Amino acid sequence: MNIFRNIKYAKEEASRMVELIKKPESEVTLEERQRVAKEVAENFAGYINKGFLEYRKSVTEAGEFAVAEWKGQGSIMTDALGREFIDVLGGFGIYSAGIRHPKIVAAVKAQLDRSPQYSQEMLDPLRAHLGKVLAHLTPGDLQNMFFINSGTEAIEGAMKLAKFYTGKSGFISTTAGFHGKTLGSLSLMGKSVFRKPLMPLIGNVRHVPFGDADALEQQLAIAEQVGDDIAAFVAEPVQGEAGAVVPPDDYWRRVRQICDKYGVLLIADEVQTGLGRTGKLFGLDNWDVVPDIMALGKALGGGVMPISAFITNPKIWKVMEPNPFMHTSTTGGNPLACAAALAYIDVMIEEDLPAQAAEKGEYVMKALGGLQKKYPHILKDYHGMGLLIGMEFPTDETGYQVASGLFKKKVLTAGTLTNAKAIRIEPALNIPYNLLDEVLNRLEDTFKSI
């Protein structure tokens, strides 16, 4: 289908959807909801990331009307036709405080009434205040930061800062690691299907197995011997997209020592693990390790606004001071995003979300242990930390059957990008126990049906 310019039609369609958004829920008719559910698949097929639809359970498992996301609250997502789903996907980690947490939404609405963006010239108080708050949360002397919009931007900034400070060009990352899909962060990616079609990427990037400190030391020794300068080692404290893979307990302390020995910066990708997800404020807090640079994202915006950051210590940041325009962003750290981040931090501490993640994570892992004993031919393994949990299945097809079965039973979850046999459990950290129990019941029902 070829589309040609039609400004009148574009205006009519924009107005129609805006008016529908503005309507109170009670005034949206069934016919209007059905039209949304019918059109959403057509519009994706015609205009958005063509080919994406065939991977969406919301189309293939939904029947006559696609599952069109409409509203959510806490850990319940409701589609346009009123079908309710228990969310244990958590938007891949953005919903640590749940969907539409009232305190976070209220903060953003209040700031929206004052000013939605900044002038680019006057000093904006929310960005500065968020910097102060985060500086008092982060481990060690991490206190100088830059705000952007997404996790991959945070990694790009961290890589740029590492190269700038060290004067070195190389990086080491881990196999099965995930750091984003822009060209710099993609260079760190640990899976060929995303990298190979776009080669060559950034040069002098090496990969070592996650959790193997000896392999890291060997690579650094070889790099030193042959004259390949390495600026930084980049890794997730717990690998998220690989299926919530937890390293050996001595791994991170050894990594810190090895990086110091070879004069290499340690960049912690805390985009998914940070701000409570693993049962501590930050993933590396589980091992009392302080990185040189930390990347944050996902949960930082409270599930309401996109915001990310890369953070370092004053010694490293000093290299940016002569020219603070070495790194800029038009919308990074905008007032709405900073309001959401400040509100999330307030909620996270008030509700002790890290402690909730630790306690509920243990609860889920214990239940999965029981299910593995009953269904060993289906649930091959499970692992994780806090409420970042991965279930491993013997084949890709089994993993898809479980994800599809859960969707039919109104549970939102998904596979991972670097391990096709893994399905994640990554719900809101404040998800009620009764919903966790219901998810576990539906999970067992799915195993039975398989």
Outline the fold blueprint.
Elements: H1 7-22, H2 30-47, H3 57-60, E1 69-73, E2 76-79, E3 84-87, H4 90-93, H5 102-114, H6 125-135, E4 144-148, H7 151-166, E5 170-174, H8 183-188, H9 192-195, E6 205-208, H10 213-226, E7 230-235, H11 251-262, E8 265-269, E9 293-296, E10 308-312, H12 314-317, H13 335-350, H14 353-374, E11 381-385, E12 388-392, H15 396-408, E13 411-412, E14 414-415, E15 422-425, H16 433-449
Parallel strand pairs: 3-13, 5-6, 5-7, 7-8, 8-9
Antiparallel strand pairs: 1-2, 2-3, 4-10, 9-10, 11-12, 12-15, 14-15
Helix pairs in contact: 5-13, 6-13, 10-11, 14-16, 15-16
Quick structural overview:
With 450 residues, this protein is an alpha/beta fold. It contains 16 helices and 15 strands. The protein has 2 domains: 248 residues, 3-Layer(aba) Sandwich (Aspartate Aminotransferase, domain 2); 78 residues, Aspartate Aminotransferase, domain 1 (Alpha-Beta Complex), CATH 3.90.1150.10.
Q: CATH class of the largest domain, please? A: Alpha Beta
Largest sheet: 7 strands, mixed
CATH third-level topology of the largest domain: Aspartate Aminotransferase, domain 2
Could you say which overall geometry the principal axes of the C-alpha atoms support? globular
**Mean pLDDT level:** 93
Helix content: 40-55%
